[in-house]
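Sequence in, structure out.
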Amino acid sequence: MNMSTSTHDLFDFFKKANSNISDEYTRICRRVNEDPGTAGDQGEENWKELLESWIPPYFQIVTKGRILSDSGETSPQVDVIVLSPDYPKSLLNCKEYLSGGVVVAFECKTTLRRKHIGEFIEHSKKIEKLAINENGTPRKDLQSKIYYGLLAHSHEWKKENLNPKENIEKAIWEYDEKYVTHPREIPDIICVADLGVWKSQKMIVPNYDNGKGLKGNYVMSGYIASDNKEEFFTPVGSCVFDLLQNIAWRYPSVRDIVTYMRKLNISGSGSGYSRPWEWSILSEETQENIYRLKNGGFWNEWGMVIDLSLIHISEPTRQAEI
């Protein structure tokens, strides 16, 4: 990245947004013992205001509600919900939101704790079941229509030598293995404003061979931890970019601004761990048309294949650096 790009004004805007979240955390913590409920509500409002500042104004954002499926099932309560632009206004004050009109759902925590990660991943599995998902392409097979994430101001691992990033990653994988039975059930993002971002990664890896018995065509899922080594990186900026990129799949009008941000590398670089899935988790239609797979490409439903020469996967952790 050249100097003119790394000093782009957009990075300053994201740094300011990130600082605002940090300042709010300090303020909320001063009052949390007096009224924990109000403190939690204030935290949700912080994130709602941030989202309203960065996603297109035609999306409607509400707080505290449940997602209602077409069969009448409801999700656990979620804290911030982004509704489609065409969501019926007469239903905006109802606290059960039709899953067909839910674009994004977030859990919000003022201070992230280990148990929150477990609850979050368990809820992700439930919310995926409520979405009106489709099959027939790699993306449709592997990505839920409801983007689901966890937003936190800060975390509980403040004492020296506690290594918060390592603790979060261990918790993510422990609960992933406990609850997730299909890649589409994986949550999309965890953003801790004063620490970092963990984003889901799903890809198709043909002709995989680890030399230890795992050989053939596989689907890989995992979580990529964004790297904050770059001076321009902010967790909030990386989170906003990932959210907009996901929204752009369903709403093409957002794609130009996403393409602009991608050129600036807003999300930074990162590394993470992958989990292999049998080829059979793909729908029959996708398997029958697998010849359409291509390596990379944006806004292509068949562009989730990846060449092993582009990543490093090592056993036993299967760390993949993108």
